[in-house]
Design brief:
heterodimer; A: 13 strands; elongated; B: alpha+beta; ten-stranded mixed sheet; two-stranded antiparallel ribbon; 12 strands
Chain lengths: 385, 394
C-alpha cells in the first residue's frame, strides 16, 4: 500500500508535467486508434463479401466489357446456381465531388443473390415494374436526402448524355457489415438506350455476378468458367467476390501501407515524449532515490517504483484515449462519409492501443529505473539536479 | 544585454538524453510532414512534366479521361485539318490519333515470392509514328522501337521495373493476340513511363474498336490554342473537350493530390501537438532545474527580456535540430519511387518523392513554430521569476 501511495504522490507532484504527458499520450493513442480504423475501412468492402458469390470480368481489365450472351454459358457451368449482370455506370450527381457508385443490374436475378439488402416488398415490386426505376441504399439516401419518388439526374463520362432515374425503393442493411451506399437501376433500360444511340455498345456486360452452391468449390468453378472462354475475343477472369474487392484495395495498397507505417511512427513519438519525462524525473530525483536506498530499500524496489510510475502514466493516458476513440472515429467518419462507406471500430484496435500503452510504459520506465537502481548512495546524495 | 548563443547551445548539450529525445520526436514529426509534401510534389511534378506546352489533347465531351473517351475517324479528320494545327516539313499535320485501353497486369511482389501477384491497371496506348514525334521525351533505352503494322510493344521504364512478364522477348496476351515486348523506353520521369506503347492500327483491329480514344496535336504557336478551341467548340459535327496537354495531365493529379495533402496535414497537426507537448515538458524542466541559475543571471544584471529570449532561443534551437534531422532523413526518400493507382485515370502511376526548396522552407518554419509554441510558456515562467525567490531556491 505504501508502495502504491508513494508512486501516486510522485506522479501528482509535478502536476503540470504529468498532465502534459498524459495529454500527449491521449492524443497519440487516439491518433493510433483512428489510423488503425482508417486502414480497416479500406477493407470494409471485402468484409461484406460473400463466399458463395463469384465475379467474372474481362481478363484484360475492368474497363472492358463482355458479350451479355456469356451469361447463358456461365449458367450452364456445373455448380452455378444463378448468374446476373452488373455494369458500372460512373455517373456524376450534380458535381464530381458527389461521388457514389451506380450499377445497372439485372434486378430479378441480382437481388436474390444479395439477401443482405433488405427491401420492403411493396417498394421492391414497384422498382421492378418501373423501367426507369432505381433502388437506393439507406446510407446513400441519408447522405443526399433521396426519398421514394424523387428523380435522380446523372451525367456519365462512360455513357454520354443526361440520364434520369426515379427512386422506387430504398433498401436497408441486414447487418453491420453491409454497405448500403450504392444505387442500382435496370440493365435493360441502359441497354435499350445504348442500342438506340450507340448500337456497338449494346448487349455488353461489365461483370457477371455468379452465385454458387458451395464456397469450397469456388476455385474449380472459377477455372471452369474461364476455360469456357479461353481463346475467345473476350477472355474472362473469375474470382471470389472477396478477392475481387481486395483487388481494388491492392491498387491503392501503397497508401494503406503508408497510413499503417505512420501509425507506428505515432507510437515512436509518444515513446520519445514519455521516455523523456521519465528521464527528467529520474535525474531530478536521483538524490531521493539514494535516500531511499540509504533507508534500506533494495535497488529492485526503487526500480519497480520508477517503472510503476511510468506504467501508471501510460495507463492513465491510454485509458482516456481509448475511451475517446469511438467519439473521434464517429466525428472523423462524419467528415469523410463520402469516401468511406463504413468505418468499423473493431476490438483488435483496442487491444493494439492497450499493447502500445504497455510498451510505452516499459520503454519510458526501464532506462531511468536501471540508472536509479545502479546509482551509488554517496554519488546520489551528492547529486544536485 | 543579451545572453550569448554559446551559453544557450551548451545548455542543450549538457542534457544530452533529454535533448536527443525531444529533438528526435520533433524530427519524426518534421519527417512525416516533409514526406507528405514531397509525395504530393512528386505526383504533381510527374504529371505536369508529362504534357508539352505546344501539344493539345482532344477527347469526347465530358469524358474526363482518355479511357472513357471515343472519337470517330471523321471527327479525328476534322481536327486534323484545322489550320491551327502545326505542319511538318512535308506539310503533313502534326497530329497523333491514338487509342488508349487499360490492361490489368501482375505487379512484381515486394512482400515475398509466395504471395499471389497483385494486379493493377496499366495504360496501353496505341499510337502512330507521329505520336512518337510528338513525345520527344520518350527515348528507347533497351531493345528497339516497335515496328508499325506488327504486334510489337514497348514498355515504359516504370512498367519494366514494377510489373512481371514485361521483359524484352516476353509476350503479353490480350485481345486474342500475343504481343511481343521489343524495347523499354524512358520518358524522363513523366506519366508515359507508366505506359505500354504499340501500333495504333494493330490495337484498333485487335480490340475491334472503330473509334479513337484521343487526338493529340501540336499547335503552330501557343496562342493558336484559343482559336483552335473556339473552332472545335463551334463545329456542330464535333462534341469534344480540348485542353493543353500540360493542363490535361495536371488535372489528373487533383484527386490523388487532395487525398495525400488532406491525410498528410491531418497527421502532421496531430503529431505536432504531441511534439509541442514534448518540447513544453522539456523546457519547463529546464526552467525548474535552473531556477538558481536564472536568479544569478538576473542578479548579474541580465534583463527579464534577455532571460525570455534565452529560453525561447533554446527551444527554437532544439526545434531547429529536430527539423534539420527530420529533413535529412526525409531527403533519403528521394531515392524511392512510389507506384499506385491514380483514382482519376484508374491506372497505375509511378512517381518519386521530390524535395523542393519550398518544402525545406515549409518544414523548417513548421519545426520552428513547434519550438516557439512549445517554449513560449516555460520562457515566460523563467522571465517572471523574482530574483530573491529564485536565488533562494535549492
Amino acid at each position: 500500500m505504501f508502495f502504491l501511495n508513494f508512486v501516486f504522490r510522485n506522479i501528482f507532484r509535478a502536476k503540470l508535467r504529468s498532465t502534459l504527458t498524459i495529454v500527449g499520450l491521449v492524443i497519440a493513442i487516439l491518433a493510433f486508434g483512428l489510423l488503425q480504423t482508417v486502414v480497416r475501412a479500406w477493407y470494409a468492402g471485402a468484409d461484406a463479401a460473400s463466399a458463395t458469390r463469384l465475379i467474372t470480368r474481362s481478363a484484360i481489365s475492368l474497363t472492358f466489357s463482355m458479350p451479355v450472351y456469356y451469361r447463358d454459358k456461365i449458367r450452364a457451368t456445373p455448380g452455378v446456381t444463378s448468374v446476373s449482370v452488373s455494369n458500372w455506370f460512373g455517373g456524376i450527381y450534380k458535381e464530381p465531388k458527389n461521388f457514389f457508385a451506380q450499377f445497372a443490374v439485372d434486378a430479378p436475378t441480382y437481388f436474390p443473390m444479395y439477401p443482405e439488402f433488405v427491401f420492403e416488398p411493396e417498394q421492391y415490386r414497384a422498382f421492378l415494374r418501373d423501367r426507369q426505376g432505381a433502388a437506393i441504399g439507406q446510407q446513400l439516401a441519408d447522405l443526399y436526402g433521396f426519398k421514394v419518388g424523387d428523380t435522380v439526374p446523372l451525367k456519365s463520362g462512360i455513357y454520354p448524355g443526361n440520364w434520369e432515374f426515379v427512386v422506387r425503393a430504398i433498401y436497408s442493411a441486414k447487418d453491420e457489415t453491409t454497405i448500403t451506399r450504392q444505387m442500382y437501376f435496370h440493365y435493360d433500360y441502359l441497354n435499350e438506350q445504348l442500342k438506340r444511340t450507340a448500337p456497338r455498345r449494346g448487349d455488353l456486360a461489365g461483370v457477371f455476378v455468379v452465385s454458387i452452391n458451395d464456397g469450397q468449390a469456388a476455385p474449380d468453378i472459377s477455372r471452369a468458367i474461364d476455360a469456357e472462354f479461353k481463346n475467345s475475343l473476350a477472355e474472362t477472369l473469375t474470382e471470389t467476390e472477396k478477392a475481387f474487392t481486395l483487388g481494388f484495395v491492392a491498387m491503392v495498397e501503397t497508401i494503406v501501407v503508408a497510413i499503417e507505417g505512420v501509425s507506428y511512427v505515432v507510437i515512436l513519438i509518444i515513446m520519445a515524449v514519455a521516455a523523456n519525462t521519465m528521464a527528467m524525473t529520474a535525474r531530478e530525483r536521483l538524490s531521493e532515490y539514494a535516500t531511499l536506498k540509504a533507508l534500506g530499500f533494495k535497488p529492485g524496489a526503487v526500480a519497480a517504483m520508477i517503472i510503476a510510475e511510468a506504467f501508471l502514466l501510460a495507463i492513465l493516458g491510454a485509458g482516456i484515449g481509448m475511451l475517446m476513440t469511438p467519439l473521434v472515429v464517429q466525428g472523423f467518419h462524419a467528415l469523410t462519409v463520402s469516401v468511406f462507406a463504413k468505418m468499423p471500430l473493431v476490438a483488435q484496435t483496442f487491444y493494439l492501443q492497450a499493447a502500445c500503452a504497455v510498451a510505452v510504459g516499459l520503454v519510458a520506465g526501464v532506462v531511468p529505473a536501471v540508472r536509479a537502481a545502479r546509482v551509488k548512495i554517496v554519488d546520489g546524495l551528492r547529486h544536485v539536479a | 544585454m543579451k545572453l550569448p548563443v554559446n551559453y544557450i547551445a551548451r545548455n542543450l548539450w549538457v542534457r544530452k538524453l533529454t535533448t536527443v529525445l525531444t529533438a528526435g520526436g520533433m524530427a519524426l514529426v518534421v519527417f512525416v510532414f516533409a514526406a507528405v509534401l514531397m509525395l504530393d510534389a512528386g505526383l504533381k511534378a510527374t504529371l505536369v512534366a508529362t504534357g508539352s506546352p505546344d501539344n493539345v489533347v482532344v477527347i469526347r465531351q465530358g469524358a474526363q479521361t482518355e479511357i472513357q473517351s471515343g472519337l470517330t475517324r471523321d471527327q479525328a479528320a476534322l481536327i486534323e485539318t484545322s489550320p491551327e494545327v502545326a505542319r511538318g516539313v512535308n506539310g503533313q499535320p502534326l497530329v497523333s490519333k491514338e487509342v488508349v485501353v487499360l490492361n490489368s497486369l501482375p505487379k512484381i511482389s515486394q512482400s515475398g515470392v509466395n504471395q499471389p501477384l497483385k494486379r493493377s491497371n496499366v495504360v496501353v496506348r496505341g499510337l502512330p509514328d507521329m505520336g512518337k514525334t510528338l513525345r520527344p521525351q520518350a527515348r528507347i533505352v533497351q531493345g528497339r522501337m516497335f515496328s508499325a503494322g506488327s504486334s510489337e510493344i514497348i514498355v515504359g521504364a516504370s512498367v519494366a521495373r514494377g510489373f512481371a512478364g514485361v521483359e524484352i522477348g516476353q509476350q503479353l496476351s490480350f485481345a486474342g493476340r500475343a504481343w511481343t515486348v521489343v524495347g523499354v523506353f524512358d520518358a524522363s520521369k513523366t506519366a508515359f513511363d507508366s505506359e505500354i506503347w504499340g501500333d495504333v492500327e494493330q490495337m484498333m483491329q485487335a480490340f475491334r474498336r472503330v473509334v479513337y480514344s484521343s487526338v493529340v496535336a501540336k499547335i503552330s504557336t501557343p496562342e493558336s490554342f484559343v482559336a483552335l478551341k473556339s473552332r472545335l467548340d463551334d463545329d456542330p459535327r464535333l462534341k469534344v473537350d480540348i485542353k493543353r496537354e500540360a493542363q490535361f495531365y495536371s488535372d489528373q493529379s487533383s484527386s490523388l493530390s487532395n487525398f495525400i495533402t488532406l491525410l498528410g496535414m491531418a497527421l502532421s497537426i496531430i503529431f505536432s501537438l504531441g511534439a509541442m507537448i514534448g518540447a513544453t515538458i522539456t523546457m519547463y524542466a529546464a526552467v525548474a532545474t535552473r531556477t538558481a541559475e536564472i536568479g544569478t543571471l538576473r542578479a548579474l544584471g541580465f534583463q527579464r527580456a534577455s532571460i525570455l529570449m534565452a529560453f525561447l532561443l533554446e527551444s527554437l534551437l532544439l526545434a531547429l535540430v529536430g527539423g534539420v534531422v527530420g529533413l535529412i532523413a526525409a531527403s533519403f526518400l528521394t531515392a524511392i519511387t512510389v507506384s499506385t493507382t491514380n483514382f482519376q485515370s484508374f491506372s497505375e502511376l509511378a512517381f518519386a518523392f521530390t524535395l523542393t526548396p519550398g518544402i525545406v522552407t515549409y518544414a523548417l518554419i513548421f519545426s520552428l513554430t513547434m519550438g516557439f509554441i512549445g517554449g513560449f510558456l516555460p520562457a515566460i515562467k523563467a522571465s517572471r521569476m523574482k530574483i530573491v525567490d529564485a536565488l533562494r531556491a535549492d
